[in-house]
Amino acid sequence: MTSSPRQTPGGLVIAPQVRDALDRGRPVLALESTIFTHGLPRPRNLEVAREAEAWLRDHGVLPATIGVVDGQPIVGLSPAEIERLSTDDDAVKLSLRDLPVAVAKRLSGGTTVAATAFLARRAGIRVFSTGGLGGVHRDAQQTFDESADLPTLAALPLVVVSAGVKSILDIPLTLERMETLNLTVVGYRTTDYPGFYIADSGLDIEYAADSATEIADIARARDALGISSTLLVARPVDTDLQLTPAVHDEVLTSALDAAAAAGVSGHDTTPFLLDFMQRETAGRSLDVNVEVYRGNVALGAEIAAALAGVQ
Ligand code: PSU
Ligand code: MN
After folding, report:
1. Residue 165 CA to ligand 2 centre (angstroms)
2. What is the pLDDT of residues 242-262, one digit of tens each?
3. Assuming Cys at both sites, which of 134, 135, 243, 298 could form a disulfide with 165, CB separation 3.0 to 4.6 Å?
4. How many CB atoms lie within 10 A of CB 108?
């Protein structure tokens, strides 16, 4: 493959509309691709990716979905590229450390929160919405399995909207690590830290923000202070849309047992547990996952607009 005319000297492609919107100070929201390469089953994955983009365009915010196609990191995947990645059996899960190999070997794949955040910042994007963040796995004291999402976000001045971390992880340890890494955590209209499928993980955080405007104020204060870590915005799913907490706890226990029995480890752990939960709840966890994502995209859009001074 010859290098594309759109390619920047830094080795990433920034789609012209994204470049143009950023140059003009228009709101842009970064979106990850691991959610549709490894997080959601087909064909729902492609539907969700398309729906998020369409919703954002309708609401005056430019989506910049980020991924790697044939070794080319792209900020602002085209509809055809999104379709290709979401139907590609060979798409790999690419965290930050995998990007050099993916480029050199011309691989295609979905970028995790860590890799997406890195590429978004390289392009000058300030806000990124995802479903759930990676964090500290339950047996991390033994395995050292802590997602690269945390240290990577600690070094990037972004605003990242998520529904917290899934309870497949060790949430108390994850919150401790966020504190150590100087990651500011603010709940959207709550100080109950959300547990992705459930609105309240049972853990409390210190601060709530009541509006996108207030979140934008916190981000501007962070920037003015010269602090370069991410502002994590935790938005809980509506309680009437959440997974029933009792069902959640039961399925989670079986998912963790199944992962241990199958000897799953490393970067396969998160996709394995999510897939297990989806099958065991007959798709109910998938519906919640989609609702969570929609809500996070909408809030990210509002924050991107507030930071751009729109509305
Ligand atoms: N958490 C979810 N769904 C996901 C992921 C995390 O609820 O799809 C994906 C994200 O892309 C995240 C990555 O960045 O998994 C974390 O994987 P690991 O724990 O291997 O770093
Ligand atoms: Mn991991």
Report:
1. 13
2. 999 999 999 999 999 999 999
3. 135
4. 21
